[in-house]
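Reply to thread "Modeling small-molecule complexes from scratch"

Following up on the discussion above, here's a worked example others can learn from. I took a protein sequence and the SMILES for zinc ion and predicted the complex. Inputs first:
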Amino acid sequence: MNPSPKKAGEMARRAAYTKVERSNFSNPDHVEDKTFRGFQCLNKDCTNFLFIKTDTIDPDFEYPCGVCGFVHKAGETTILYDYELKDTRDDSTIEQGSFEILHDDYVGESKEYKYCIICGTLKPFELFGIHRRRSTGRQGECRICKQVYNGIKNQTRLVEQHREASQKRRLFTHFEDRSKMDVSAIYARFDNCCFKCGLDLSGDLVAGVAQKEGNLDHTLPVFYLWPLTTDNATLLCREHNGAKAEKWPGEFYTDAELRKLSAVTGIDHRLMAGEPQFNPAALSKLEDAEFIESLFEKFARYPQELLRLRNRILVQTGFDFLDVSARISPDWKKQADALMT
Ligand SMILES: [Zn+2]
Ligand SMILES: [Zn+2]
Ligand SMILES: [Zn+2]
């Protein structure tokens, strides 16, 4: 038999022949692959959350709070205030009574939860993938644990990738300025449409107010430390937002689009069409020794993104923010230089 020639897709296929062996794993006894109903204790002074195993729920229930002792009981009510129903014409009282919640209604509407059999935490049901053959109808492990497992099995190093993305997001927040952003004004500026394809995004507006920032793109990218402000935002649909990502506008838009974008945002056309440039305001922030020291304190554990930023700025502008403070250890320079390729 001839071995089949190697093709693209070989990597993906290899996953079928790998298996993950586990050691140093245990679950405490309370972690069961069963569903629970969860609700907060109805005693307003108590913040305890109660979880009741779904298959033990009895129409004649009685659930005492483990913290304050308040009893949630079938047929009982909790009074929240006393009311008087009045006739507005002559202010006469029609009826008096208590505003009360029936415990059956309260427990009955509670949401379902399940333990993840890997991380051992109780999570809302919808955070587990569907698995029809299991008694719970859901997978035993939560979506995060499943992703991490698949990452190991397929050798995609998922946690490292996510950590890098998270460190990058954390680092870039230090250069953002949310006070200069008016989301609804940005939508209006782009007529509520994706600037690239014209897709109607007015569904993001409720009564004229934009509800989310997910479709806003940094026109001049945060990768070069440009903050997301009203003037630096482009409205893009999900697909085009993903395609634009960290690209400089000149690498993503046609020249006609750049001219139009310049007219809408006021950003200089030559800046957008030219070579990528770091935000000068951010660079001057990086000349402040205290700011640099605070960044190194925050990113001491996972400094890669900060060091990569130093390298990018150094290569492009010749400015080395590792020279700004005498209190920064020279070891960082060695580490940063080692990351240069
Ligand atoms: Zn309680
Ligand atoms: Zn989990
Ligand atoms: Zn689009």
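What I'd highlight from this example: The chain has three domains: 35-150, 176-273, 280-339. The two ends are 44 Å apart (CA to CA). Questions welcome below.
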